[in-house]
Amino acid sequence: MKNLKIIFYLFAFLIVFSCNDDFVEVDSEDQNSENFFNTEEDYQLALVAAYDYLQTTAKFYQFAEIASDNTLCGGESATDSPYIQQIDDMIHSADGQSDGGLRTMWQWMYEAVNRCNYIMEFKDKTDFTNKTSVIAQTRFLRAYYNFILVKWWGDVPMLRDKRIQFGDQFTIDRTPKEKVYELIEEDLIFAADNLPYVQSQTGRVTKGAAQGMLGKVYLYQKKFEKSADVLEDLINNGPHRLLTPAEYPNMFERDWENNIESVFEIQYSDVDGGSFECFQCLEGNYSVYFNGPRGFVDAAEKFDSGYSFNVPVQDVVDAFEPGDLRYETSILDMEQYIIDNPGSSWSGDGYEQTGYFNRKYIARLGDLNIGDAALTNPDNYRALRFADVLLMAAEALAEEGQDNEARIYLNMVRNRAQLPDVSTSGTNLINDIYKERRVELVGEGHRFFDLVRTGKAALAIDGFISGKHDLFPIPIEEIQLSGNRWEQNPGY
After folding, report:
1. How far is residue 355 CA from its own chain's centroid?
2. 8 A C-beta contact, residue 385 and residue 262
3. CA distance 51 to 266
């Protein structure tokens, strides 16, 4: 077992919610626990099931990119996937988001957290040699999923080291986000203290991933000194580095997955989206095919066609400075591409088409699409890159008034892009860091939350209302299932 892209079958014991009704008899929780978590293999299987939900997060980074000022929803028409169109236009509501929208995403993240809490609930049942590593990986995953929940929904229902089971929604309140962040920090600190920088199996969580995520969590809470400390420790002592300018164009190619710049990468596979093995039909990275241009014929035989969602706008194209190495790796300009590659063509069909596409995450020709090509793309998502770590460290240091140190990290990223040094200070330096984050990370799903956490979303995103769109609405069905115990987020 060398790579977490290997497909694992899921077992009934890992279903999140157990229930009793007039038609079904279900073993009690105590009986289930007696039959499981008796060996290391049991814990490892449960851990793999917890990893499995990382693959569902493709929706989160795609939807977040569309919610930002970087891209438009696109698609076939104005009624294609209306729940995404609504997010793009900032008219999303608490209902109408069930079919693949916010409610699905809420459910996925709660199942993900529950899978982690299942392990934590029985963490003391059986001892074995690798137990500390299993618990550390579990706690990282729980922190990662909880961070998504708190970013998207703020105060969220939460239990610690215990599954939320059917019926608990009537007694559990929404936990203040400060308390959620406390658990996230504790989990990431434990993971960073108990994991190695290099794992024997590609795709498993590392010390560097835990440190990078911890630094990001601190940054989101404006704990700048703590953020800088942990990120600089990773920068100075971890194994990661920026790819060189010659290497960089390969960053998002299949042959360069899990490269030295990738601090945390989500593994995808090409399992058939219609087969039993594909739980939730998201073993593959669905966003990659959705992002591609319709009716694309590539004479250069590099790219495949797609459904034309998540299309970059002119404003983000113009944000790149002349000579920026990252532009051609980030943005596929169809007009220029067809000129450069005679014989290529595309239909131009679709809604809100700008002629630009997210080159980082569109299907490459020959991606082993099997069955439903939209659900079986094996391209990994680079969830945390070393460039992001450098820019977060630069921001945290600049906020602490350490401009010289901040410029070092900012200029490392700029120099790799073959751009000159920045020499600004104070507020101007912080704004330069924000600008650099946009062009460095375009297409990767970070921009919306960068704008929200820095208070700039209302100025940048059409239709964004401060105090409302900082968070997404809790799906109305979930509030109803709680017996209307949970209050809706403001403005919805």
Report:
1. 26
2. yes
3. 9
Name the packing angle between helices 40-52 and 102-121 (round to 10°): 160
Q: Is residue 405 part of a domain?
A: yes
The residues near 162 (Cβ < 8 Å, ≥ 6 apart) are 117, 120, 121
Angle CA 313–317–322, to nearest 5: 170
Segments forming the whole domain that contains residue 44: 37-195+466-492
Q: 146 and 254 in one domain?
A: no
The predicted-structure confidence for 93-152, as pLDDT tens digits, reads as follows 998 665 678 999 999 999 999 999 999 999 999 999 999 999 999 999 999 999 999 999
Please choose, from the candidates 199, 180, 42, 179, the residue with its C-alpha nearest in 3D space to the C-alpha of residue 136.
199
Interhelix angle 131-153/177-194, rounded to 10 degrees, is: 150
Alpha-helix runs per DSSP H in 307-400: 314-318, 327-330, 334-340, 386-399
Sign of CA dihedral 130, 112, 211, 1: positive
443 shares its domain with 471: no
Is the CB of residue 437 less than 8 Å from the CB of residue 406? no
Number of domains in the chain: 2
Cβ neighbours around 159 below 10 Å, total:
16
CA angle centred on 112, ends 108 and 118, rounded to 5°: 140
218 is written with which tokens? 């601190």
Rounded CA-CA distance 96/230 in Å is 41
User: What is the DSSP secondary-structure string of 164-179?
Assistant: --TTGGGTPPEEPHHH
Which residue numbers in the chain have pLDDT < 70? Answer: 1-34, 96-99, 271-282, 368-371
Give yes or no: residues 191 and 239 share one domain. no
- What are the counts of helices (DSSP H) followed by strands (DSSP E) for the chain? 19, 8
Q: What does the pLDDT look like over 300-328, one tens digit per residue?
A: 999 999 999 999 999 999 999 999 999 99
User: CA-to-CA distance for 60 and 149, rounded, in angstroms?
Assistant: 10
CA distances from residue 398 to 217, 220, 431 in whole angstroms, order as listed: 17, 15, 10
Length of the chain: 492
HSE of 307, CA atoms in CB hemisphere, 13 A: 17
Q: Is the dihedral of CA 317, 320, 326, 327 positive or negative?
A: positive
**Same-domain status, 263 and 392:** yes
Q: How far is CA 123 from CA 88, 252, 291, 432, in A?
A: 42, 37, 41, 46
Question: Which helix (H) or strand (E) element contains residue 119?
Answer: helix 102-121
Q: Is 115 exposed, middle or buried (0-12, 13-18, 19+ CB in 10 A)?
A: buried
Query: Which residue reads 């769109």 in tokens?
Result: 469
**d(C-alpha 359, C-alpha 317), whole Å:** 12
